Amino acid sequence: MAHMDTAFIFDLDGTLIDSVYQHVLAWQEALDAEKIELSAWRIHRKIGMSGGLFANMLIRETQLDISQDLLDRLRSRHAEAYRRQSGKVRALPGSRELLAHLTAAGIPWTIATSGRMETAGPNLEMLGIDFAKVPVVTRDQVKYAKPDPDLFLTAAERMGVDIQSCIVVGDSIWDTLAAQRARALSVGLLCGGYGEDELQRAGAFRVYEDPADMLKHLDEVGGRR
Hints:
- By secondary structure, the protein is an alpha/beta fold.
- The protein has helices at 20-33, 40-44, 51-62, 68-85, 95-104, 117-126, 150-159, 173-182, 196-201, 211-216; strands at 7-10, 17-18, 90-91, 109-111, 166-170, 185-189, 206-208.
- It has 10 helices and 7 strands.
- Helix 1 (20-33) crosses helix 4 (68-85).
- One of its GO terms (molecular function) is phosphoglycolate phosphatase activity.
């Protein structure tokens, strides 16, 4: 049987960047501006899913008639509010070191995020991502985001690897569900706020605290040459 090299696809918010709660506050500010009341914990549970599913969640939770115009305003308000929060955003422990280790070992990796470039761009710059070398995939570039598999399938295609040789690394159940639908293995990280049991039930075959913890155990998930 031919040896199948491992490649990694990373989520961004809550996985490499400590930004989940800034996104929650930004969404809450956007909703407040439209006089839509929604508890922060309900917003947190939906961070990482596609905008369309987020809209469906709003309809279920608020019983409001959510128009496309309202969604467009919410997205714009969220992006502006997040930019004001972005000064508090930091890379998670071990993020840069993990990516540098994979690069030095010649192990392919990329980033696929359900965020649009308007909010993801500064975080990618914070990590020192070289767009000429790393084929980053954002929400702007695919038809559907998580839990649909499009982001991860596109990421694998741009790396030139089989999706079944990829390991998706994410912090939410939306990452692990999308990975399963793409037929990739997934690793869960606790640094986005989801619990170990939740991530495992959604399909993660290993769960670590954060990128630093994953780096210590990289050999357990095929991260070696």
